[in-house]
Design brief:
This protein has 1007 residues and is mainly alpha-helical. The chain has 35 helices and seven strands.
């Protein structure tokens, strides 16, 4: 083999092998660490800390190979110079480069896919390795096409190539994202891979050959257009007041506007692809709005890679732009830092503004005006809402613009490697159980090392006289100011908040670590410049490059810069000052509880027998114990229908009750097996406790308060709700038992005993508690229907039943039962989003990742969105048919927690209106029965019942008309509402397909 070909092959194998081995080794260590912490089922659970590593590392390897690190460690992209310089045939040079890199991408992909299989027993399939190799080949071809074909033309070609198959698949029908459409057989797979490889090789050879002969075609690059700026004529006109100004202009010219151009083009490509994949004519969903951030980050990385941060090379014929300029290394670094800031800040503002426009929707049109006009958030919080994502983008994009420095290129992998090794060492010495703890250790190791790296770079540059003390002071001030600004991300905690003592130092470390991303690029730039100018050895002579001082009079521009700097510093100081949340005064102003403590005072009840909840819990424990014993003795599963050895059905309690409800008008239709099981359950479980429950109901109304720790918020222990439902079922079975025996008095007492159960939940500020309360009320209505159909209550019993059901809920004119729950959940939601972290109801230590989450989803945005949505729910839930549910997904791009918390609000109000409708119909049914007793006939119209037997004819909430009634020839009757679908289905309820009428049937049969 030719020696030159061997040299080229060795160079490719050395570079590609080193990159692949390094990435695979780090990934294997991390996956092994996850196996120790997350257990053998981690992969099956699709753990968010594991799967991205396995899938993203092959893509990262391919990207690094495409970007082509040169011998100095820079990512230069395009061809390796050997391909153009060595006297080797183009076909062989391309074959060596493409073959070696594809081999390493494919091999590393296989290893990373095999590691999960070896460690967890499952993982991605072999198809993914071929996909990663194919992605690399396409990316490599696109990169090589940039030499003979302009980048803009290449982008247009790629868009066309990608859009055509996407369009065809879209028109074809059932294509789904993530479906690779690969051949099923291995033979077909290998044949397809070979065909793709051959096509890519042919196109790559043509592209490289065109570059070697100097052929270049296509639309000019965007950054090639402004060539009208001529440095020579500009200099002759005396446009530069100092060598520093000339260097800034030169650095700006060298950037070629990659950042704005790349951001715009990539944004158009991403949104075009998203619209193509979704459907034609649809707007961008709010969930896709964050993808606008991706183009800016990619363009920032491209900017840093293209310029190699600063083009520190002698440029002949352009005096003033080489190292012969009387500028220090620090001044060269300052010049590029200024250019980066001038280029980055406007793009960040534009991207954030576009993001708000695309994803704002309801957030901008409703939530933000609500916050301004109502005072739900103060000015500082509203400012944070609009600038927090810009700060996050600066933190992410600023280091990317310096990615080409050798210092950062070496420090970043070293930083992550050291952090992983530290995490493994800490875990070995102090084993922890949860995977979250391991990730926390890794975060803190990276944060601490990041601070050390930044401080070390500044100290080294100062010690070697590369930067002056003044520069160090300036950047330390920037560092401290940025840390203080980030400190304002975390909300202020109440004075009595039981947060860990370590939270403050950990919060400081987190803020200082992220703030170090600002001075680190400058220190790395200064060190890199000094290395290029003077080599890596020795300390510079401090007199070698004195700062050039040019006598410049104080101009308006200088005063403007100083004023802008002062205003920025004051703004950062103001934003970092954590004050009292703005929602506190707002809630007090509208009469809502403003803290958990206020909620607790609402439901505070003296302990002991004065608290009826204590008695209910004791009875509930007894019923649960007896029920478990009963079902265990009968071999019955509570969750499913089973059969005995003879094939006869064995019914769990839920199915027993459901079967009995469906056959309420006629006892003869009840399955004998079901009836027998209900009787045996009554004897074993219900009979011992029913008298006590009836005694509690017969006593005067008593206050109740269940043992709930409201500080736990949404994770509070509400186990008593299931106990109360069990008691309600027990009383329903008791009603059935006495009704089938014809004992109306005992059945009457059992039915009324359910009402105090639901009343004991009246003060609980949880939606789920009020829904359980509604479920108990529904159970009482079902018991009443069964009672009226199977017994003959006395007039006194009917009057008492009607009175008790009429007062089961407070009048809607006074309050809606869901309003209390909504207000309570509102303050709990505000508390939850205000906490640093809520796990198992306890305030946890602050995590390093929390800062990024708070910047992406600021607390103020969550708070005002939550307030707006809860207030909107209460104000617009007046009647079922006028309820206009809002799309809470319209705010998830800014307040995802609030969107998740609001999903069941309107359904909750629907449940309240439904039970109120059922209660009104039940009272009307009792009134009809009383009328029949007195008059000997059924009323022709329900209006005949008013006012002697009924205060007013019930209004159907779902039609604004009166409820319907049906008289039958046999003397039975039915009263019903048309339900939510507002279609009269003649009393058919949800058991009959899609019908949803609310009906109460009373037959003439009595046992």
């Amino acid at each position: 083999m030719n020696t030159k070909i061997k040299a080229l092959a060795w160079e490719e194998l050395r570079v590609a092998g080193a990159i692949s081995a390094w990435c695979v080794l780090l990934s294997a260590l991390y996956i092994a660490l996850c196996r120790v912490q997350l257990g053998p089922r981690a992969w099956a659970m699709q753990d968010s800390f594991l799967v991205p590593i396995v899938y993203s590392i092959p893509v990262l390897i391919a990207l690094l190979l495409v970007l082509n690190p040169n011998q100095s460690g820079h990512l230069i992209g395009g061809f390796a110079r050997r391909v153009l310089w060595l006297p080797v045939p183009t076909s062989i040079a391309v074959a060596v480069t493409l073959g070696a890199r594809t081999l390493f991408v494919f091999t590393s992909s296989l290893l990373l896919l095999a590691i999960p299989h070896a460690i967890f027993g499952s993982g991605p399939s072999l198809l993914h390795a071929f996909l990663f190799a194919g992605l690399y080949l396409i990316a490599q071809l696109i990169d090589w096409m940039r030499e003979p074909i302009s980048g803009l033309t290449s982008a247009l070609i790629v868009i066309a190539i990608v859009s055509i198959p996407l369009l065809l698949l879209r028109l074809g029908g059932d294509w789904k994202i993530g479906d690779p459409r690969l051949p099923d057989s291995m033979t077909g797979l290998l044949f397809g891979a070979a065909a793709v490889m051959a096509i890519i090789y042919a196109l790559s050879t043509a592209a490289v050959h065109a570059a070697r002969v100097g052929l270049r075609v296509g639309v000019p690059e965007i950054w090639e257009l402004p060539r009208r700026f001529d440095l020579g004529s500009t200099k002759e006109r005396g446009a530069f007041s100092s060598p520093m100004a000339a260097q800034i202009w030169y650095a700006f010219r060298q950037s070629k506007l990659i950042l704005p151009a790349g951001t715009v083009l990539l944004s158009l490509l991403l949104f075009g692809t998203a619209l193509l994949i979704l459907s034609y004519g649809e707007r961008i969903p709010p969930a896709l709005a964050p993808i606008i951030f991706v183009p800016l980050l990619l363009a920032a990385a491209a900017h840093g890679i293209h310029t190699r941060v600063v083009g520190f090379r002698s440029v002949r014929g352009k005096a003033g732009y080489s190292f012969r300029q009387p500028l220090t290394s620090a001044q060269y670094a300052w010049a590029q830092i200024v250019v980066n800031a001038v280029t980055l800040v406007p793009m960040v503002i534009a991207v954030v503004a576009l993001h708000f426009v695309l994803g704002g929707g309801k957030f901008l049109s409703e939530v933000v005006p609500f916050a301004f006009t109502s005072g739900a958030a103060n000015l500082r919080e509203l400012t944070w809402i609009f600038i927090s994502r810009g700060i996050l983008l600066v933190l992410l994009a600023w280091p990317l613009m310096a990615i080409g420095t050798r210092t950062i290129s070496l420090l970043i992998p070293l930083l992550f490697t050291t952090a992983i090794l530290i995490t493994i060492a800490i875990h070995a010495m102090f084993p922890v159980r949860s995977g979250e703890a391991v990730v926390s250790i890794l975060f803190w190791a990276i944060a601490s090392l990041g601070i050390f790296v930044c401080a070390g770079c500044l100290a080294q540059a100062w010690r070697k006289h590369i930067i002056a003390s003044r520069d160090v002071s300036v950047w330390i001030a920037v560092w401290a100011l940025a840390a203080w600004l980030l400190h304002g991300v975390f909300p202020a905690q109440p004075k009595d908040a039981a947060i860990p003592a370590l939270n403050l130092p950990l919060e400081v470390v987190s803020c200082v670590a992220y703030a170090s991303l600002l001075p680190l690029p400058f220190a790395a730039l200064a060190l890199d410049v000094a290395r290029r100018r003077h080599g890596v050895a020795g300390t510079q002579d401090p007199t070698q490059h004195q700062r050039t001082r040019v006598a410049v009079r104080r101009s308006g521009k200088a005063r403007f810069i100083r004023a802008s700097t002062a205003v920025t510093a004051l703004l950062a100081l103001w934003l970092g000052w954590r004050g009292s949340p703005g929602y506190v005064e707002y809630l007090r102003g509208i009469g809502w509880p403003a803290s958990i403590e206020v909620l607790e005072t609402i439901s505070s009840v003296p302990p002991g027998r004065a608290n009826v909840a204590t008695r209910y819990l004791a009875i509930g424990d007894e019923v649960v114990t007896r029920g478990q014993k009963f079902f265990a003795e009968n071999g019955i599963s509570q969750s499913s229908r089973r059969t005995d050895e003879f094939g006869a059905p064995i019914w769990p309690l839920d199915l027993i009750i459901g079967e009995i409800k469906g056959m309420a008008p006629s006892a003869a239709l009840i399955d004998p097996t079901v009836r027998d099981m209900a009787e045996r359950y009554w004897e074993a479980v219900v009979q011992p406790v029913a008298p006590t429950l009836k005694d509690i109901a017969a006593a005067d109304a008593q206050a109740s308060s269940y043992p709930i720790d409201l500080t736990h918020g949404y994770t509070a222990d509400l186990s008593h709700l299931n106990k109360l439902l069990t008691l309600g079922r027990a009383l329903y079975v008791d009603t059935v038992h006495w009704s089938l025996l014809g004992d109306s008095r005992s059945a009457h007492d059992a039915t009324l005993a359910i009402l105090p159960l639901q009343q004991s939940l009246a003060n609980e500020p949880f939606i789920i508690s009020q829904l359980r309360r509604i479920a108990l009320l529904s159970m009482s209505v079902d018991s009443l229907e069964f009672l009226l159909n199977h017994t003959t209550p006395t007039d006194e019993e009917l009057v008492r039943l009607q009175e008790r059901f009429a007062h089961a809920l407070p009048p809607v004119s006074e309050t809606r039962i869901m309003d209390t729950a909504i207000r309570g959940e509102c303050i709990m939601g505000l508390t939850a989003v205000n906490e640093i972290s809520m796990v198992d109801g306890q305030r946890q230590q602050v995590e390093s990742s929390d800062l990024l989450e708070r910047l992406l989803f600021p607390v103020a945005a969550e708070q005002v969105t939550l307030l707006h949505n809860y207030k909107h729910a209460i104000d617009h839930a007046n009647w079922p048919w006028t309820t206009t549910p809002i799309n809470f997904g319209d705010t998830d791009a800014f307040a995802p927690i609030s969107s998740m918390l609001m999903g069941s609000i309107y359904r909750s109000y629907e449940a309240e209106w439904r039970i109120r409708m059922n209660l009104d119909i039940a009272q009307a049914a009792i009134a009809v029965e009383r009328f029949r007793r007195a008059e000997g006939r059924l009323p022709d119209r329900l209006s005949e019942l008013v006012p002697k037997y009924l205060a007013a004819t019930p209004t159907d909430y779902y039609s604004s008309a009166l409820v319907r009634s049906v008289r039958r020839d046999d003397g039975s009757f039915m009263i019903y509402s048309i339900g939510r679908n507002q279609v009269d289905e003649h009393g058919l309820d949800s058991k009959h397909g899609r019908a949803d009428d609310f009906a109460f049937n009373v037959s003439v049969a009595r046992q």
